[in-house]
């Protein structure tokens, strides 16, 4: 080995080695101390035992995280393991966004979290973890992942990559647990997360308001009929044996009675869900992003979102290109990378062909709810043309 040969030929004197060791030690000591103080959080503290427990719980939950949105019935979780096949198909899978890379729990515990998961990490781990000031609360299959990925390009946005599901599934873990999941932010940076099931969780508005009444809320909405088909397509990809979309849509196909208890249908009654949020938040604290325009004009929608969040308009047309193979806009450079980035294969799935009569029946069903929604939001989304 070249290195050992040099040693043999020209061994350093003992005093030279000692001097070098002392110099190296004095250089490394402050860095190690800084690392301990800023990154590991091992300062003696009376709350250490409980924060250790919280870290343990975080570790465990990261394993359990589905990183996706569950098909939750409004106000009631209808998932039952012993439910018949059709019922399980209706309530949908526990897991989603399976392509999202979660770091192994030991890395999370050591805070060596990949930049993709934790957002922009400064080399010295400066900043502190804060509760989110803005949330993408829905809707499932609306384009929430695309919006978050695009927003993360902004230097003043730091976001959790996975879906924390705090305000629906893990609320009893407490706000400290939630805060611990957040990436560190510097002064002026906004902490964000996205969990699309919040929009249809009855308790979420009160819980979020209890965290902070000033929380900014973003909802990506999409034509409820296409959204329902997208939702069904996702379930089908995991459970190919489920009944057809057409049969799940109706309580009674002959009478044409729609099954509004099927979460794929129910999530799309946006006006009804929004009503619940308006009991706790004023309209000007909620931004509605068009899922359709997020695809046809991502920079335009991102402009509105940046304004809403009080951010400088940094994300512009220059950040996107249309990927013909994917059929969607992609980022020229992903956050923390110099490479182009499209969303994974679970985004932009091919939908099955649905009987046009059933589609029309659903259009008729949603029309009055859509009209109400346009009226409430003051924005015409054009789903009923
Ligand atoms: N840029 C880009 N690339 C890929 N996909 C895009 C993009 N913008 C929006 N979309 C649409 O996002 C749909 C998935 O929505 P969500 O990310 O909200 O889904 S989830 O609820 O988190 O599972 C997904 O739905 P499907 O097409 O049905 O798969 C896409 O249509």
Explain this structure to me?
By secondary structure, the chain is of the alpha/beta class. Helices cover 42% and strands 11% of the residues. It has 16 helices and 11 strands. It has helices spanning 2-9, 14-40, 48-64, 85-91, 105-109, 115-118, 144-151, 175-181, 204-211, 224-238, 245-249, 263-266, 270-278, 291-296, 298-308, 356-377, and strands at 128-129, 134-138, 157-159, 184-185, 190-194, 216-221, 250-252, 257-258, 286-290, 320-323, 328-331. A 5-stranded parallel beta sheet has the order 3-5-2-6-9. Strands 1-4 form a two-stranded antiparallel sheet. Strand 7 and strand 8 form a beta hairpin. The longest helix has 27 residues, at 14-40. It is globular, with a radius of gyration of 25 Å. Residues 1-95 and 98-119 have low confidence and may be disordered. Residues 68-69, 96-97, 140-146, 196, 230, 233, 294-295, 328-329, 343, 347-349 line the site of 3'-phosphate-adenosine-5'-phosphate sulfate. 3'-phosphate-adenosine-5'-phosphate sulfate binds at residues 68-69, 96-97, 140-146, 196, 230, 233, 294-295, 328-329, 343, 347-349. 3'-phosphoadenylyl sulfate binds at residues 141-145, 222, 230, 347-351. This is Sulfotransferase. Disulfide bonds join 330-342.
